Amino acid sequence: MSDLKKYISKRKKRDIEFAEDYDQGYERLKIGILLKQAREEAGISQEQLAMRLHTKKTAISRMENHAEDIKLSTLEKFAAALGRKLHVTLS
Quick one: angle between helices 72-81 and 16-42, nearest 10? Predict the structure, then answer.
């Protein structure tokens, strides 16, 4: 385990607020990364995707870099524009 992982683990144990914020932030980051990876795997630019979704390149960038409060319907459109389907799992 790296020093960073050890630090995060210890801090999460002693600071509940940090733990909650860290986990929520990580999940938002992970969604943005998945969106960017899917777009890149489809071989299209943010601008091309924006045209398919009838929006601006800045909106695509915001989704990929600040994945907060994205509507499920927006995620479905994003996936469809890439020729994919959205699957949601509750755990």
Answer: 30
Within 10 angstroms of residue 35's Cβ, the number of other Cβ atoms is 21
Token representation of residue 25:
């932030």
Here the tokens at position 45 are 């630019």
CATH fold of the domain at 3-81: 434 Repressor (Amino-terminal Domain) (1.10.260)
* Cα 71 from chain centroid (whole Å): 12
For 22-60, what is each residue's pLDDT tens digit? Answer: 877 887 788 888 999 999 999 999 999 999 999 999 999
Q: Which tokens in the block code for residue 38?
A: 């899917």
Query: How far does Cα 34 stand from its chain's mean position?
Result: 6
pLDDT digits over 7-26, tens only?
888 988 998 888 888 877 88
* Tokens describing residue 79: 């996936």
